Amino acid sequence: MPDSPPGNKTVRPSGVRRDTARLQGRERDRDTGRIRAEDHARYRVAVFAPRLELDGTTMYTRTLLNALRGSGDAVMLVAPSGPMAKTLLGAYDDLFEMPDQGKIGFFGWRRMKEALADFEPEVLHSVCPDASLPAVRVADHLQLPLCVSVHGVKPDELPPAEDKLYDAYIASDQSVRERLLNDCRLERDRTTLIRDCAFPERAPDEQAILSDRRRQVVGWVGPLTEGCGYHCFIEAAIKVQARGVDSMFSILGGGNAADKVRDEVESRGMLPRIVVVQGLYDYGRIWDPYDIAVIDTRQSAAALMVLNAMANGRPVIATEGGAVFDLIQDGVDGMIVPRDDSDTLAERILLLVQNPAERLRMAKAAFEKIEDDYRPVDMADSLNATYTALLTDEPLPKLFEPRSRRAATK
Q: What is the pLDDT of residues 16-63, one digit of tens each?
């Protein structure tokens, strides 16, 4: 096959699907009238992701890779490097590292094409509908099925109306799927819902949480961009300090507003109490310094940031919006506060800082929820059933039930 021209443009006519009917092996004759996730084949999947920053999208990428490999699939990652790159080591079988700026050029395309040819993927998966990723171009060139995960309902998180660049659209929650169907007007049989998952990493440390020998640290974690809620966190920290509570605060993240964040903290005279951290040596332990995690859900794929904090034994205070109401039962396994409400945020922080037993109870409840309701095996089963449907030209199921729930209804 000749080389495709440089750029991310596709020469495929609008509305025409890729010819993915050239199936091999047992998939050719499989009767998939009822696809059963437990009986799925093992696939070779190339995953396309943006730069590996400290954000929910990278958390999703890491979870996706580990879930697929854990189920027996072979995975290749195609992405630029970034601060979170080391946390993905061991989560893939092969890697093609794109340039930071995302533009690979003619010779970069040749190298990527050769790497993909060596890997021989059967399915392509883009972790978000980012037009700068080469996933669509690769899918058109190789004539392979391409699915995309969609994590939010903001315009920059959704595909265009009546989009046909992808063969399957995977919504992370019901509100996203409804937006894909009603606002984006996508084909119903090419959209599905697969819930996010998380790997339980570190259970709550009861001895450390109940100890009165150390000062509590409250951490705000996420990309530092305009409108991300850091103003509210700074205001809440000032109000907590005004109550005479001996606690520390930290803002961890990078982005185009990072310098403004530091300047604002300094101008408010809070540098001794609010530590602004733009980079870490080990991003594999981002939650270790914090006793309480504060997450603004306006960031992309915020659900993965919330789940990751819960999976590391941290009680979470999240702003309302997106899928957070499905993730957190307010006051039981986490807390939900209105956006940009520093008074409420300060009260919730005070409640947890001053009540170690409540902090422990909430962290345990959150960790147990991760273990019971957000299992990677369920996500992997659903993904592989989706891949099977793509390769056999079956409509995608509307949603998938976790394996434990299916067993309970039999």
A: 556 654 444 434 444 433 334 445 569 999 999 999 999 999 999 999
Q: Write out the residue limits of the CATH 3.40.50.2000 domain(s) in the chain.
A: 25-197+375-395, 206-372
Cα–Cα nearest to 288, from 277, 303, 273: 277
In Å, what is the CA distance from 372 to each residue of 61, 199, 200, 288, 311?
Answer: 21, 11, 10, 23, 11
SS3 readout for 199-221: CCCCCCCHHHHHCCCCCEEEEEE
| Of 235, 145, 143, 257, residue with least CA distance to 190 | 145
Q: Hey, is 37 helix, strand or coil?
A: helix
Residue of 99, 158, 148, 150 lying closest to 124 (CA atoms):
148
Sign of CA dihedral 276, 278, 282, 284: positive
Residue type, 359: R
Global model pTM greater than 0.85: yes
Q: Which fold has domain 25-197+375-395?
A: Rossmann fold (3.40.50)
Q: 382 and 406 in contact (C-beta within 8 Å)?
A: no
Residues 247, 275: Cα–Cα separation, whole Å:
12
